[in-house]
Amino acid sequence: MTGTDSRPQVDPALVRAAQRGDPIALGDLMDLLAPYVGRICGPIARQDGPDATQETLIVVLRNIGQLRDHAALFGWVRAIAVREAVRVAARAKRLSGDPLEEVAGGADQQLATDVGDVLARLSPEHRAVLVLRDLEGVDETTAGAVLAVPPGTVRSRLHRARQSFRKVWES
Questions:
Q1: Who contacts 112 (Cβ-Cβ below 8 Å, separation ≥6)?
Q2: Judging by beta carbons within 10 Å of its beta carbon (0-12, 13-18, 19+), is residue 17 exposed, middle or buried?
């Protein structure tokens, strides 16, 4: 699954109305974005995913007026979601929690549990790079921009994250 598969269609008029402060438009936009944000925050922040989702939506709500390119809405929201999820997970400093139910879509609950257990052992930074590259399908440059690190750092984190994932998975 790539990130484009999980994005709802958002009418640019809705975004413009939300930017003008229309409370109904703001509510509708948040309702559309919440599941997308949850799918990003959940695997990174784990049991604190709902908190990270809420924090992300608050930041989006407060800053929607700063968005200049309506076509960039999902990239902008994704960057905020990853940043907030890493921040919330680092603040909590706990890695146990619910498996990746939303990511797996309930298709194979045991697999979701196993993957969740392995991801729980990774740092929030490693989970973030795995989510961006392997679940969202973004390239290294975009992932670097979202994580505020150079593409080379994305490559090295991704390599280490995948190595750690494989090591735990195979043990």
A1: 99, 100, 101, 103, 104, 106
A2: middle
Query: How confident is the model at residue 108, as a pLDDT?
Result: 59
CA–CA separation, 35 and 68 (whole Å): 23
d(CA 59, CA 82): 12
Number of domains, the chain: 1
Rounded Cα distance, 25 and 12, in Å: 11
- Residue-number span of the structural domain to which 12 is assigned: 3-170
The residue type at 79: A
CA distance 27 to 148: 29
Separation CA 77–CA 129 (nearest Å):
16
The beta strands (E) that lie in 36-138 are given as none
Interval 40-77: pLDDT, tens: 999 888 889 999 999 999 999 999 999 999 889 999 99
Which backbone phi and psi does 60 adopt, to 5 degrees?
-60, -45
Query: pTM for the full model?
Result: 0.66
Average pLDDT over residues 82-100: 68
